[in-house]
Write a structure and sequence with these properties.
Blueprint lengths: L4 E5 L3 H14 L4 E5 L2 H10 L4 E5 L7 H11 L5 E5 L4 H9 L4 E4 L4 H11 L15 H18 L3 E6 L4 E6 L6 H23 L7 E5 L3 E8 L3 E8 L7 H19 L7 H24 L1
Parallel strand pairs: 1-2, 1-3, 3-4, 4-5
Antiparallel strand pairs: 6-7, 6-10, 8-9, 9-10
Helix pairs in contact: 2-3, 6-8
Amino acid sequence: MTQKRILIVDDEESILTVLKNSLKKVEASYQVVTVKDGFTALDQLRLQPFDLVISDYNMADMDGLELLEAIHYLQPTTPLIMITAYGSDTLQAEAHHLHVYRYLTKPLDISAFRQIVQEALGDRPVSRPKITMLSDEQYHQLSRLLESLLKEVSAGYIFLADAHGRTIAAVGRKTDLPMEQIASLLSSGIATLAEAGRALDGETDAISLTYREGKNEYLYAVNIGQQFLLILMIKRGPYSSRLGSVWYYAQQTAVSLRDTLSQSTCPDPQQIFEQAIDRAFEDELDKLFTAGE
């Protein structure tokens, strides 16, 4: 395999070490260079071209956007990845304008980060998010489990989503909150927790709980394997269910949901599209033959 050169820019040494080591574990032939500021990064680029540049946004003297803009004009064909803990629509639009390959927010899902790097380098095909498909019976079973949990913990709203934040099922009072965006953000945190657990004991399918105590509501998130997320919104008050009680019932429900979801199918969207085209084509052929007869 041709050696690929990767430049990582971040002013935190610990992050540089983690990202470099994570990539070297994927492919030992990667030549990973790390620097702590934008000016040093440009010096490295003038010495020799890189196949990929990964940069943090929040850095002193020259921020990540300024650096990537300079790289875009210096080496316009080099794929760029921006990482930030300070995401905003404006920043994402600016990154898109510079043709940044991916715009990632912290905390990073290391597995997803490795995959994106491989895709940017052309070492693996670009993956498409899977679509969860349920039978009517499976969907009704999911809804019954969510309804039961809603009553057990006196929740206002319960939301079941996949790892990309897409709705699978929901029960309770409708909310104006951007639940799919919340689910997507929580999935990143759960994925980071899963990576920590993997490093701790090697287990990949443990159930984890994330909890936030807000002014008006309690927010709970429970993972179901590595692909699904259960989110509970409980109105804050003197009679609200306590953390231990919510965790007990949510954990029991997560196990049951996992059993049901394990029976679902997750085809590639491209496969669904191709099958639909094939069916449409066959229908048109049937019509032609019928008309001919």
